[in-house]
Amino acid sequence: MIAYLIGLSAGLVPALSTGPVFLTLVxxxxxxxxxxxxxxxxxxxxxxxxxxxxxWLGLSQITASDQPxxxxxxxxxxxxxxxxxxxxxxxxxxxRPDQLVTTxxxxxxxxxFSHAIMLNAINPVIWGFWAAISNYAITEFNDTTSELLFFAxxxxxxxxxDLLKAYYAQKLKKYLNEKFKKxxxxxxxxxxxxxxxxxxxxxxxxx
Length: 207
What we know:
This is LysE family transporter. By secondary structure, the chain is mostly helical. Helices cover 80% and strands 0% of the residues. It is globular and about 55 Å long.
């Protein structure tokens, strides 16, 4: 249960990110309404889950022991800190999601679903982030059950907040100014740096 709660906390990082997926979700919700954008959220959820499973299983194959190698703690900690610094230092670019052509309802739903999958799947930052999260889970927890509970917490937080973003899209839009985005980026960056530092400190304290 502790692992699940930690996962919920870690899930705030992707949940509050203002990257292309967030902006596209909000724009689609405004343009097409909550009923349609659910299919976009399903596409994001499916891709996130698939990427987590791929990175987690891939990293798990590297070690069959209960304690991951030192490189996991050091590399994972440095990777999380690096992502944190990227969030803090990067400058916001204006994102404008591609507009889907007006089509019948079922085709719009499929278009939104496939758009989300492509947007997530081709983004190397998303792959790198979920790989870092998978590395953190393997390093932090001692058993598969705890790791899966951690991932469940992360994904549940992302799914719930995505639904809330879609539902309140009209109200959210007016807050998406540069100052607000910067505050969010800095907050997310600090959380990642804390997680990364925690891994490094725990590694060196256990030596």
